[in-house]
Predict the 3D structure of the following.
Amino acid sequence: MSVRLFVAVDLPTFLKEQLGQLRINLKHASWVSGNNMHLTLKFLGNVNMQDYKALLLALNQIKHTSFELIPHGVGYFSHSNMVKVLWSGFEKNESLVSLAKQIDLITKNIGEAQKRKFHPHVTLARPKNTRLDMIVPFLQSYSLFRTPAMTVRGFSLYSSKLTSLGSQYTKEASFELQDAV
């Protein structure tokens, strides 16, 4: 038996509310609900129960201090000239990259290995049959999006279940970062 997992930073309510307002009228787009918004640090895919237990122990050993993170801007991921994801990003942050690298290192032999470069973002929508020119209003309207800093005090391990209504996430465990000095 296996479970589909990812490691993520939970977002504060104020940020989820502000991100929820970054919508445009876009046919065939599935917008992410506020309670499903998060900053993925590592997607692991299907993990067997033996590795799941080892993963919990390993994540608990991560040593990192809390840090500030500033949400900023919007963008998209595409494939074959079709937009697949609309997202909001973050200002460059070495502490975030360091935490993601630690998690990547301890999970390199767990789950479905992915070699994607870490690109910190929050998924806002998953458009279908959408060309780039169709999202220009989104990019223009929200290119300067910015909120006050959020403090990252920990991260969580989530399971993900794919359903006909979209993904359902369950928090499996939370891990605290050390207070910054």
Q: What stands out?
A: DSSP finds four helices and ten strands in the chain.
